[in-house]
Amino acid sequence: MNARDIHRTPADGGEPGNPGNPGEPGDLTILRQIADGDLTWFDVFARRHGGRLVAWLDSHLHDHHTAEELAQDVLLKVFKAARDGQFDDRREDLTAWLFTIANHRLIDHLRKVGRSSIARAGDMLDALASNEPDPAQTAVRVEQKHRVHAVIEQLPVAQRQVVRLKVFAGLTFAQIARLLDCPEPTIKSRMRYALLKVRQMIHEDESA
Amino acid sequence: MTPDPIHDDLLAYTCDELDADRTAALKARLAADTDLAAEADALREAWARLIAEQTSDELSDGAVAELKARWIADNDDTEQWLAAAAQTRLSPDFTARLRARYVASLKPRRRWLSRSLIGMAACLLVGTGIWLTLLQPQPTHAYDISTASNRLQEVTSLHVRGTYYVYSQIDRHAPPDAQHWERYVARPYGKYVPTLGTHTGYKVSDGKTVVRVDHTTRQYIRYPEHPFAAKLSTEYSFRGSLVERLYGKPAYGYELVGTERHRDRIIEIYEQVHDSNGTRRRNLLWFDPSTGYVTRTKYYAKRADEPEHLVGEFDTVRYNVPPPPELFNFEPPQGYSATVLDDYPYDLVLASGAATKDGKTLKWINHCIFNINNRAVLLGWALVVEENGKIVDEPGLHSDPDDMFELQSYNDTPIWPHYHHLLRIDEGKFFHSRWSLIIPQDPHVDVSDSFPLLRFCLQDKHCVSGMGYPPLTLEPAKLREFVEEAQRATLPSGADEDQIFTLEELERIIDEYQSPEGMTDAGRDAVQIQMTRVNMAACLDPTY
User: Fold this and answer.
1) Taking CA atoms, what residue in A is nearest to B218?
2) ipTM for the complex?
3) Strand, coil or helix: A21
4) pTM greater than the 0.95 cutoff
5) A80 or A141: which carries more pLDDT confidence?
6) B interface test, pick of A42, A75, A103, A123 with most B CB neighbours within 10 Å
């Protein structure tokens, strides 16, 4: 996988010759233009990647507005890094890089939410409430079992990661492997185990 | 780790990633292999269910426009910003304000107007001052705002009611969603805690029983609470960020910006302004110097290029009042499904974390965490493994906790090398409780303000992190009381109370570790802290 592979994926668009939108420049070209102050294709780049970021962030947060705000933060960071020469397209995969930044931003946000909800609502115990062993949560979980999102939540963390990146971010297995720094066969195995588990859980749920 | 390369192709086929040639080959194989065909069906079925959950999320027009504005603002090119704004879907109002800012930056300021306004304001202030001085009752300065929060340690109850405002992240000019917020907390224990605002649910406790109600799922659950857990969480309420929100942070300073007359009293209005992460925050505090209580608070925020907005306000702040009966309803609301637990293992929990792997849940339980005179942290904790809701194991019970215990940074909290001294292990009804003293190797570390995340890892890389929860700082007498009472709470019935470590004994242990001899004996007790990259763990274990 090299940096240019990202232009060949259907979701990305592509360098000149993009099958979806002929004439649109590729990601790296647009990124360089934006970094140089040329905003001609800014919206195209923002929409192309913003949608996937929002979908992936939303799958964690279940809050579209926050997901959109975080996606903006991620893209802004990408533009700054490109401007400041911190992104080497010869060595790095743009998509993997994008989602690495998104992952960090998400973690920061979740940590801050734990604390800012305190600051906003006024007490640490609000945040604690979501962290306590909570019998009510167990009961709620039973109620929500039929929902696929709840099923995803029950997967082991690493499988869940792969499922979200595959389903919501629309990444290829190669991109996920690069992003998680794991061999591609491992990623595929996780996805396979996850799918089989999802099917089993859905069936158990529907027959209950 | 894949058992057969054909499974890779099968998965790629399932997810529409397989090229045409290999798809044809796979289909031929599927036609001849019923087991493989069955697996293909299973995978396709699950994939279809997941894909059905895909949302059509995309960055909205407003978000793209806002992103562009942020990028251009970051490059400090206002002219370009204006050009871009003209082509985008930014609200005319937003664009107009930016234009005004740009125009203002080009023109010399009309200083005569500013001077006139300042002069008029000064006259007005002087006039008001004279009027206040001569005609109004004077504030009785029995208390000072900078130390007023200490008054909360003397009150028996606190009732706060207010509103906080949630703004749209997309359209910042849309009116905010105002959410009612209310809390009542009383010593020695008893509290009402809304889940978020008050419309989604609440938690109510009388020190023996906890009731949680979730309006969104119409669930009601009741379970027992250890009296010490209730007392501890109540104490946090009187010292946590609610107090900071009400009384401000003394480190930011207080500026008197006005006074108001309330019946026979003069209420002073103080302002605090501070900047963090690109946001300017301004708090207004209404302070009664005769009682030492803050009676009202409003707090605002302002990000660059945006107008200041009201974040929240507490308009009712009452002290030493009985609990409002309408808040303390322990009965299930009509039509809600109710669960009542009589025997609950986690009745003495301040905070916890859990991680599930292979059907087993590793659960970390924090009974309490105290700042021992800013020299060390006393931690009551437990570590259990649950399977199907039952506790099946307690990892590391008979081994050195250093093997699985570490500190982990969050939000740039510094990690400090430390000694971990296991004081005691108490056998409980459901699991064992362990008592640890975490002592910084550097005696100058401020443990009250920089305690990092706690993290426990088993040898198979099954890890769990606890929330960054600050050690509770108490006055000397109260610290002694709480430290001993906390240990007593986990002591097996009939056990000798001599096993409880007094504050003096804890201090002696700290002395021993922090002595120059102890510092050099790194091989014995020192813990080398290292960062853990969670996502990269266990690459070789596909089931992880």
Assistant:
1) A140
2) 0.71
3) coil
4) no
5) A80
6) A123
